[in-house]
Structures are given as structure tokens and as C-alpha cells.
Design a protein that fits this description.
heterodimer; A: mainly alpha; Helix Hairpins; B: mainly alpha; Four Helix Bundle (Hemerythrin (Met), subunit A); globular
Amino acid sequence: MQDIVKTIQGVPLNHYILLSAIIFSIGVTGVLIRRNAIVIFMSVELMLNAVNLLLTAFSAFSNDPAGQVFVFFIMALAAAEVAVGLAIIVMIYRNTNTIDINVMNRLKW
Amino acid sequence: MNPGELICYILAGVVVISALVVVLTANLVRSVFLFFVTLFALAGLYVFSLADFVAVTQVIVYVGGVLVLMLFAFMLSNKELLNSLRQPAAAKLSMLTNIPAGIVAAGVFTVLAISTKGLQLAAPSGMSLFPAGMLNAGDNTIHLLGVRLMTNYLLPFELASVFLLMALIGAAHLARKGKEST
């Protein structure tokens, strides 16, 4: 058991921060370059997951389980967001027969 | 480097590579199914940051709920999927317009990476940042989380439940076939 603790402690916090930054940037890239609504949703989930990972890492390194509580709130938020967003996507598809968000450009200024 | 750390870095590499493929591939089916791999590897990383219950919830909520929902939306909204498979040049067309997006993403990454540069994160002695406190790798965190949720974070917890109910009703109302739309 002590081996496992040592192993988990062996990964420095800097690497978690770097990994989360990379995943978040990948999510930003996906939101910006893709025009498919489902891929954009997956990119948003990637960004939320990057924040979740960083929250759990900081909670482990500061030895406080409160960070994991926030992860659950973010997960509830993400689930609700996906439910409503996918309902909207299905409605958009029903009205325009596509999920390309360039079709929905009437809201642009 | 012991095998545990090696597994952690392998998981991190799997996350990054599969997330890149999810974002960059032109095929939506591969994108959705590779997102499974990303989420499972992220669940493994949660285990490595001492959040076992979060990892289980990740598998249940994301893989079992969110991703299946995405698959449903994908199948409901892609009758012309086979047509798009026949024209592979469409993805290459917008390569030049992706440059500003790449610059913005690189800027975000630079800001995130630089802002943590000056932080004194590593303990001077190496790996002694875990004082013997509440979070131990040996026991599970469900007990601690339950106590936190029912004491310090009771109001956000209740608000989250009301919020989920609102989202459920709203999604059901949005996705139902209205009288005027048919």
C-alpha cells in the first residue's frame, strides 16, 4: 500500500498543470476550428475535463477533499448543458436538416 | 521512474493524442468513439490524483450518460453522413482559415503555461507535498465527499439538484415534437 502512495505522489503537480493546459488548449482549438455542433460540444467537455483534472490534482496536493466536491458540481453542470444543448441540436436539425453551425449565422452582427 | 508513474504518463499521452484526434479528424464517427478513449484515460488520471470516486463518476456520468446522449444526437442528425464521407476534400478546404484559431489556442496555452511558471509548487524535498492529512491513497474518498456535501456544500448541492431538474424539463420540452413543427 505504501508503494501505491509513493507512486501516486511521484508525479509532480507541474505536470498536471501542463497536461490540463494542453487539454484545455485542444478544447479551445476544437471550438474554434470545427463547424460541427457535436464536435464543439465534445470540445467543451474536454475543457471542463481539463479543469476537473486540475481541481482533483490540486485537491490531492493540498490534502483537502473540498476540491473534489467542486468536480461533482462541474459534472452536474456539464450533464445538464449536454442534455439541453443536444436537445437544441436535434431541434436545429429538424428545422434545417444540418448541424453545421454556419447555417445558424443569423445571430451574427 | 517506477511503473506507476510510467502508467500515469502513458495515460496522459493517450489523453492528449486521442483529444487531438477527436478535435482534428474530419470523420465524426471516429471523433465520437475516440472521445470514449479520452474519457476513460481521464478517469485513470483521476485515480492517480487520489480521486477514485470522481473516476467512477466520470465513467458513469460521462461515458455512460453524456457520450451515449451524444451518440443519440449524432445518429438522429446525420442522415447525410454517407454523403459527407464521399467528399473528403471538404476538410482540407478550410485549412487556411484555421490559422487564427490556432493562434488563439496557442495564446491560451501560453498564458496558462506561463502563469504557473512562478509558482512554488514542488516541495523542496521532492515528493513530500502530501502531509499526513485527510486524503490518503489507501482509503476511498466517498466518506469525506459525502460529509462535505452534506455539511459545507449543502446549499450548492440542493441548487444543483434543482438545476438538474430544470435542465431535464427543459431538454424534454425542447426535443419533443411540437404541434406547429410537424
